[in-house]
Amino acid sequence: MKMGTARWPRNAEIVEMFCGRGNGLHALSNLGFTRLEGVDLSASLLAQYRGPGKLYVCDCRQLRFDDCSKDIVIIQGGLHHLESLPGDLEQTLLEANRVLREGGLLVLVEPWATPFLSFVHAVCRNSLARRISKKLDALATMIEYEGRTYQQWLHQPQVIRHLLQKYFRPEQYKIRWGKIMFVGQKRAEFVDY
After folding, report:
1. Residue of 135, 134, 138, 185 lying closest to 164 (CA atoms)
2. What's the pTM value of the predicted model, to 2 decimals?
């Protein structure tokens, strides 16, 4: 992981929001992290997890954790599923901020509108390419099923950047290859730009 995991204490209390089947939790466990928790709305996805982390069926807009109780909150590809922007995004980021300790980190990776992603989307519309590549077909299917929330996410970059920086002081901020990668430290006082 290129998001600074080498510097994180292995006993950090980490929560992955929108954790699904727990692939991210497995990766963190393989890196030596031991205090892992995950939340997702889907009980059926959580039931597929086989690992050491604790899992909770929970709405990420209303986390069940105490204030200032976690060191790191991770979101990998969950925010673009939110039903209503900017409201649901703001509530989710506010909750992440609330559960983080002073100095705690939000780490996120989400799709982002870049020329590369536009190219990938164009290739996804090609039926021959979809037949040749299972990964491309899976992405095209995801785009079809999640079309409204996915497109809503991709078309509001200023709103998203504003809310990230309102609740978190950026430490790492990269946009490339169709993704935004953001690491931000919890802000004690919110900044409205």
Report:
1. 185
2. 0.88
